[in-house]
Amino acid sequence: MHLLETLFYTFVALGVLVTIHEFGHFWVARRCGVKVERFSIGFGTPIVRWRDKFDTEFVIAVLPLGGYVKMVDARDGNVADEDLPYAFSSKSVWRRIAIVSAGPLANFALAIVAFWMIFLSGEVGVKPIVGDVELGSDAQQAGFESGMTIVSVAGRPTPSWGDLSKLLFGYIGDTGSISFQVALPDSSLTADLDVPIERWLREATDPIPLRELGITPAYELQALDLAMIEPDSAADRAGLMAGDTVTQVNGEPIERVDIFIEEISRNAGQTVVFQILRGEAQTTIEVIPDFVDRNGEQVGQIGVQLAPRGKYPDAAVFHIQHGVFSAMKRSWDETADYSVFIVKSLGKLLTGDLSPKNLSGPITIAKVAGDSGRAGFDNFIRFVAILSIMLGVMNLMPIPVLDGGHLVYFMVEVVKGSPVSDSAQIAGYKVGFVMLVGLMLVATFNDLTRAFL
Fold this sequence. Notes:
By secondary structure, the protein is an alpha+beta fold. It has twelve helices and 18 strands. It has helices spanning about 1-30, 95-120, 140, 160-170, 210-215, 235-240, 255-265, 325-350, 360-375, 375-395, 405-415, 420-450; strands spanning about 35-50, 55-70, 125, 130-135, 150-155, 155, 175-185, 190-195, 215, 220-230, 245-250, 250-255, 270-280, 280-285, 290-295, 295-300, 305-310, 315-320. Helix 1 crosses helix 9.
């Protein structure tokens, strides 16, 4: 059932994103006078097909993992003389730019509408109030204490944990310091704290800046459930099951998720005693964590995915009500913030400031789609919005075979006054194809080797 739900949410998300992207190309092509021969969602054997009055064939195929819009193009050959004025290749370079740009722009528009729908129903955030500070951590050495509220980073406001996390991500790979302004607990006073960094988290896999600093949000953990057990893992061999609730580890109650993770990590090859609530029954299970390499260090891993249950302190939670126009402005801002965030992330990958191990592929996308779908409608809509932004940004990358690659060719044509030669374009497409296949292989490999806890 879990797998079927994951596949359902994945196909719904990808189906919506691909349809909107290709519709952007289709809609602008029609308005630029280009004849569209086929609008296909999916690949492989058609399930449904029909034609409209303009003789465009619409297809829904069996594999909903992509799509395409096929326009009349003289470069393909065998174009009827009466269709030549309606060929993509016959249009001005600016019209071709508009048609190619329309796909990614449609993805950004979808994200804006999705965020707008979310914000219309109100916005809930959590103030960045520090819960615990790890002993000996960078945060403790800088002077962080429990109960402080992080007001800003380098002068940029941090009204919520999400805003703070996005700002901290921008420091990955940097050397220097991170400047925080914090509000002292039960006081109107503020303080400036600096955390020195050097090539910060450059080699880390799945970096979590807050955890690396040693800061834990104020959070009241109520239960720690096991959402999934990796087959043939230490947890599986010991008899742990999805749905189990962990109440104690080595005789100690679990007050924070990071304490549980640390207990597993530092006990590789040693027996860890779990107190488990399974249904109404209490049971004890002994698990011996496997040795795994994590960022060059041998640590313990049992092969589970956690599903903590709890709540943030009432004082930390804030609510914002939006009207139609304020929700629209907020959705524009959110889309712009995520777009910049994704572009910076890609830049850090290209410069080596972010490890390529952080590239994620279809397996991770499917997992997050399933998790967000099960978490509720708003969470799933937010996931679709973010994924739509990612699709828009990725398609604008200047790689031949992507929309961004076509745009590069067109801009060269604008500068030199004539199209890029067919031979140069074909050579570029071959290079671009190899690059995309390579990226997909790396991302899928990361998916397959990304460790469970």
